[in-house]
Structure formats: C-alpha cells, structure tokens
Amino acid sequence: MMNTYNLISEQKKQKLIIVLAFTLVFSSMSATMFNVALPSITHELSLTPSQAAWIITSYMIIYAIGSVAYGRLADQYKLKNLLTAGLIFFAAGSLVGFFSTNFAFIISARVLQAVGASVFPASAMLIPSRYFPPEIRGKALGITSTGLSLGVAVGPIIAGIITTSLHWHYLFAVSIIPVVAIPFFRAYLDNTKGRSAKMDYLGAALLAGMVTFVLLGISMQHIYYFIISILLLGLFVWRINTAKEPFIKAELFKNKRYSVILLLFACSSGIGFGLPYLTPLLLADVNHLSPFTSSLFMFPGAAITALLAKKGGELADKKGNAVLAYIALSFYFICFISLSVIVGHSPYFIMLAIIFGYIAQSFCQMSLANTVSQVLLPTQTGVGMGLFMLTNFVGSSIATTLMGTSLNHHNGVSGYTNIYIILSIIVVAMGMIYTDVIRKTVSSTQHVSK
Asked: Which compartments is it annotated to reside in (predicted)?
C-alpha cells in the first residue's frame, strides 16, 4: 500500500494548503452571494419567484452531484488536472454570467460555475487526507475550514456592497479571481494518479438522477420527485451490487463507522444551516432589520470561526477528534438553547449566541472529516470524501424545507422558539450517537490489541 504522505515535500504541503484555502474562500462566497442579490436580479429581469429560485437551485444540484463525481475521479486521475479543469469551468461560468443579459444565460453561467466549484469540497477533504499524516491532519483541515468560514463571513457583505454600489453582474467578476491559483496547484501537487479502471457511467447517472430528484423534491415540495428518487435509489443499489467496477463500491456502505459518521454529518449540516438560513429571517421578521444590517450582525460569528478554525484543528491533533467533537456539540447546544430563550430580544444577544453555533459547525465538520479520513481505505478516499460532502448539501436542503414549512404554520416568536428547542434536542441525540460510536471504537481497539 503506497504511503501518499511523502509524495510532496513539507514546504510544498504548507503552500498547497494555503492556496486551497484561498480558492475555498471564493467557492463558499459564490454559494452565498447570490442569495443577497436575488431580489435585484428578479426585479431587473422581471422573473417569477419560481424562475428566481432556479438561480440557486441549479447551482445547488450540480454542486452536490459534482462533489461526488470529482471525488470518484480523484481515485483514478491526477488531482492537479481535476483542479485545473474545475477552476477553468468556474472562471468560464463567471465570464458568461458577467456578460449575461437574460435568464437563460444566468442559469447557464450558474451551472458552469457549479461544475467547476464542485471540485473544491472534495479537494478540501481529499488533500488533507492524502498528503497529511493523522498527527497533523487536523491542522490542515483547520486551515481549509478557515477558508470556508471566511467566505461565509464576507460573502453576504461583499454581495450587499457590490449590488448596492455597482451591479449584480460584478458578483460574477469576483468569482473569476480563483483562476490565478491554477499554476500554483500544478506546481505543488504531484503527478500521481490512481488505478486505471472503467468508469461506471450508468452508476454515475443513477446516482446523479437520484440526488437531482431528491433536491428537486425538497425545493419544489412535490411528492412525485421523491417517488422517482426512490426508484432510482433501488436501481443504484442494484447497480453497485452487480457491476464489476461500480461507481461506488458496496463495501463502502458496509463500513458501519463511516455510515454513522455520514448520518452525524448530515445532522450537523442540517442544524448548522439553521444559522445562515434562520437568522436573517428572525432578524427581519421579529427585529425588523434589513438584510444588509442582518448580515452585519452575522459577520462576527463567521469571522471569529475563521480565526479559531486552525486552533480547532491543532486541538484535534493534540487531544483527539473526540475532544473537538464534544466541544462542537456543547457549543451547538449552548447556541440553540440560548436562542430559544432570547428570540424577540436585542439582536446583540442573538449575535453573541450564533457565535457559538458557527464555531460548533466548523469544529464538528473538522472532527468528523478527520475521523472519516482514518476509517477509509486509500482506494476509497476520493469517493468516500465526495459522499461525505454530498451529505452536507442533502442535509442542509432537507433542514431548510422543514424549517420553512414550520415557519409557514407557526410564525413569530413562538415559531422560532420551537425550532430552536427542536434543534437543541437533535444535538443531544447526536451526542448520544457519537458517544456510542466512540465506545464501540475503543472496545474494538482493545479487543484487537489483546
């Protein structure tokens, strides 16, 4: 089994992880900026609400599918070539968007952007797993988390400034910048590629179709989308159990620790998305603040998280992933139980509470990602990390729909309070599941040592 930790020098590793964090800033910005600009685009192009929603939905669907596809391709092809292709697609989509004059061009631009940007979530997990040994991997994941958190922090603010002072077209111009990272990736990454194997296009198509119809069902809330997704799921399960070289090997899902971590990450992504989704609604509906003012109250949480992300990774390296995970779960609980009490009070109290939530989301992702990287075989790392990131999109999409539906029936202070109480209960359940996983892991380790 090849040791991939020595494929590149220590100096190149440090430069590589910084370049990756740089591109992740723009990746997360691109996913959030257009939420702020959506009203301006809708008004200027006279779009219907359903048309406007596709500007976000089209990006989300391609982004989710692409994260798994790039992860699978990373097991076969040179990572530097995949990142080069991704950055070119991302820049091309941004150029199309900058010169777009109608709805069709905007959708085409967002799809191209997503095809390119979806290389980043897989790479953010894969590069630390492939090139950094377990004793320093947490620090590397902390640096990539810093890039993601910084993008989340500044994205809405930059979008508000650009949309107000210039024009929403310039949001696409900002997204062209990451293309400058191509020569650095090609200089710092090695030329190693995975084993040669035939691509299972049917399996890939079935997985893509299943994910697409799940996300469509969530966003459109039509039952027949879910029925189609269940049928495609059945065909996908059949395919991975019968194909000689399936897109995803069935053995991956037989790894119980991996499957439980996927469940925990889906839950973490869902409740974590309650912060950027619920907080602007809460501040607008209850505190009567404008979207831009709301983003200013949310900025400290994301900014502090970006500053602490590296420290969180170092803590995982020194004390173990479990310590970081329990800190994350504790912070989640403090955040949501506090919000359930202070809804309707000063927005400054809300700003303080969500700081704990943002830190919790970052620490939880780092801890679970580090754990996943240790339970996967080297040949499974690419697709395993891709599936790991896929749960992020599915979990957050389901959570958004459920939270929105709940607010439609119970709006106002009581509606938000009830949601935050439920999220607190989910955190407690996650803690119980995680504790059980840790207990069984320790027991298994002791048994093997005997």
From this structure: Cell membrane
